[in-house]
Amino acid sequence: MSSSDNMLRIDIVDVGHINSPCDKTLLSAMEAAGINIHYHCREGFCGACRTKLLEGEVEYTTDPLAFIDDDEILPCCCVAKKPLKIKVPL
């Protein structure tokens, strides 16, 4: 498997796009790409990184405890399962 097989495209509204490794959290991928996103706990407790999921599917590495709506995700504790389109608070 090549390294590009392990990457998924993440379109970020009003920012651009990044390629995210399938085994890294979205927060880690955004940080590596230099995208500033609010966060505090990195484990789904606080909800500071709450982000709108417009298209795609994620899987949580740990069950989030922070309240999120059906159209929201917590990038600190999820990985992309399919290409995504998200909107982060800027």
Task: Break the fold down into its secondary structure elements and pairings.
Layout: E1 7-12, E2 16-21, H1 26-32, E3 51-55, E4 58-60, E5 72-73, E6 78-80, E7 84-87
Parallel strand pairs: 1-7
Antiparallel strand pairs: 1-2, 3-5, 3-7, 4-6
Brief account:
Residues 8-90 form the 2Fe-2S ferredoxin-type domain. The protein is mainly beta and 90 residues long.
CATH level 4 superfamily: Beta-grasp domain
> Which architecture per CATH?
Roll
Helix content: under 10%
Distance between the termini: 35 Å
- Indicate the overall shape: globular
- Classify the secondary structure makeup into a structural class: mainly beta
Beta content: 25-35%
User: Would you tell me the overall average pLDDT?
Assistant: 94
Query: Poorly predicted ranges (pLDDT <50, ≥5 residues)?
Result: none
How many beta strands in the DSSP annotation? 7
Discrete helix count? 1
Domain 2Fe-2S ferredoxin-type: 8-90
Keywords: Ubiquinone
Protein name: 2Fe-2S ferredoxin-like protein
GO molecular function, one term: 2 iron, 2 sulfur cluster binding
3D structure, described in words:
The longest helix is centred in the first third of the chain and has 7 residues, at 26-32. This protein has one domain (7-87): Ubiquitin-like (UB roll), CATH 3.10.20. It is 8% helix and 32% strand. A five-stranded mixed beta sheet has the order 2-1-7-3-5, covered by helices on one side. Strands 4-6 form a two-stranded antiparallel ribbon. It has one helix at 26-32, and strands at 7-12, 16-21, 51-55, 58-60, 72-73, 78-80, 84-87.
